[in-house]
Amino acid sequence: MERLILVEIGAFSIKACEIEVGRRSRPPLWLAHRVLPDGAHDNSDMMVETLRGLLKDAGTRTRACRLVVTDPDLVVRSLTVPSSDKNELEMTFGYAMTEVLPLPLDELVVDYETRRKDRSPNPNVVMAGAPKALISRAIDVAERSGLRVDWVDVGPLAAARAVGELQGVRGAGYYLVVVGATTTTIEVVVEDQPQLVRSIKMGGELITREIARRLDVPYEHAEGLKRAIARTEANATAVASLLTADEIVAQEVHSIVREVASSIDYFAIQRGYTEIDHLVLVGGSSAVDLLGTELGEKLALRVERPGPRQVLRLIEADAFVEESSSNWVELTGAVLRASDRDKNAKLVNLLPARVRARRLRRRQLLAAGALGVALVGAAVLLTIQRLDQLRQVEGTQSQTAAQLSAVTNEMAHYAKYGALAQGLTAARTPLLAELKSSIDFPQLLTQIAAATPSDSWLTNLSIQAPTASVSGPSGLGVTFSLEGCSQLAPAHWLTSMSQLGFLSNLWVSTSTLAPASSSSGVCTVGVPAGDGVESGATTYQGSAVISNVFGQYRSSTYLKQLGVAQ
Asked: CA dist 117 to 120, 156, 333, Å?
């Protein structure tokens, strides 16, 4: 039975466990947690030393590993995209990720997973991306510790996966807040699928540091004071500094609540998540009662706080930790993913392509080596048998020749793979010819989205896709469906779209205004005060014609990505 180690490298600690991946779920073989020494966040050698010590104490010899990455620079988005092949999806998400993370495409790691089970023409997918340097650093720490990383899971997706398995959090949607040591992640989860994710660089470590600084006590003592305040049974007279620490905790909790509430208000108003009525709070600092209380009061939401034991019960590991232990929600979600037996599902894996290719080459070399050893062994065995048979009787030569002939025929069987390679080479030429006449839809959509004014947002965009190259003077027809903040939104949109050189025959065919008094949460961007302009949600449709300027652009971009000289 295959064994697998899962590792989460955080800012202040490392968590790990080992599981057996088989026909049915089993409890982890062990679960371990190590606090990183001061300065380890910026020192890979200290991380490696800590992880090596953890693995040594666990007494494991397993090397297969999955990493769980959580960082403020990690981006997760849920999108509904036109159905397309794998290469076009990856290129589309790559360009979309560069809009969020200001880095070149070759410095990002991007992947996606299809979450909808049906065969919808517009599949709903979740894309995730991170700077390649962030992922490579985590992989380097694991590999220098003696592990072999085969998968990189995403912390926000893992957290939503774990919380989605708990009773009482399914339904139309909920907010998920994961309070870590240095990072707090806010997610909007609808039908167990993260729609939006935002990370802020604030967490429980901020409270501990402030207690240590203001009371002039060691960091470990400050952490103990914070945990004592978090326990409802704590007696304020038992610790001399507890009352002062309580005031510090309250001040820092206010800061975290303010940032979290601001993000959730934005999600609710701008993205329309006004029907969500509860929030799930997890993480190492979620045990601070004041944090959950203030979030519930400020946002008027019902707050649920599943503890570490309740989360770990999902993987039958609740006996490993005490209720006051650290945050295990991301690691639990990673275990659930690793135990998933659906081999055909497309899942997010941020393992860089370079590392994947290296793993593939290693497996190929191992397979080739095993085949070589088997062939050499077979040849030696046949030779020994032949010599033995020659010593016994001359008539056994015909039998030996027949065996050698059978081996020769079997080796000739592999010649078909050479023919297959030639066929692939022959198919490459028409494929490249077809690509050169293809339309650059990712670039087209990127420019249209960038030119849309801030007081309008696209709800639907329909383009008449060509069957081959763009031809004719008219180009392609495109239809827009939009919503705006006021009755001026269509005019602003026409003005902005006219700046795009490849759009002509711009027109707004319909425009419907819902007065502000009949709707709630309508934005006021672009609405001049006192000009008699009636504000309110305006639904309108526009149309245009796309010229032929995109006919050859995508060919050079794709061929460059494929490493093909033109």
From this structure: 9, 21, 20
Report which of 267, 301, 554 is spatially closest to residue 437, judged by C-alpha positions: 554
Q: Greater confidence, 142 or 99?
A: 142
Partners of residue 78 on adjacent β-strands = 126
Q: Helix, strand or coil for residue 554?
A: helix
- DSSP-based helix, strand, coil % in the chain, nearest 5: 45, 25, 30
Contact criterion met (CB below 8 Å) for 459 and 484: no
Rg (CA), the chain: 30
Report the Cα 564 to chain-centroid distance in Å: 30
Q: By C-alpha distance, which of 73, 195, 184 is closest to 127?
A: 195
SS (H, E, C) 89-147: HHHHHHHHHHHHCCCCHHHEEEEEEECCCCCCCCCEEEEEEEEHHHHHHHHHHHHHCCC
Q: Is 364 helix (H, G, I), strand (E, B) or coil?
A: helix
Longest dimension (CA), the chain: 113
> Helices marked H in 318-352 — which ranges?
329-338
Q: Is the pLDDT of residue 153 over 80?
A: yes
Tell me which residue of 458, 493, 476, 482 sits closest to 80, measured CA to CA: 458
pTM of the model: 0.60
> Distance between CA 50 and CA 11 in Å, rounded?
13
Report the mean per-residue pLDDT for the chain. Answer: 78
Contacts of 41 (CB under 8 A, 6+ apart): 11, 12
CB 439 within 8 A of CB 550: yes
Taking alpha carbons only, the member of 386, 551, 401 closest to residue 476 is: 551
Sorted by sequence, the CB contacts under 8 Å of residue 148 that are 6+ apart come out as: 63, 64, 65, 359
56-81 CB burial, b ≥16 within 10 A, e <16: eebebebeebbbbbbbeebbbbbbeb
**CA–CA distance, 12 with 39 (Å, rounded to integer):** 9
What lies within 8 Å, CB to CB, of 560 at 6+ separation is: none
Please report where in the chains the tokens 């037996």 appear, as a residue. 341
Q: How many CB atoms lie within 10 A of CB 480?
A: 22
Torsion of CA 203, 206, 209, 215, to 10 degrees: -120
* pLDDT for the residue 319: 80
Which structure tokens are listed for 554?
């995508």
Residue 45 amino acid letter = D
pLDDT for 125 beyond 70:
yes
543 burial type by CB count under 10 A (0-12 exposed, 13-18 middle, 19+ buried):
middle
Q: Which run of H or of E encompasses 459?
A: strand 456-463
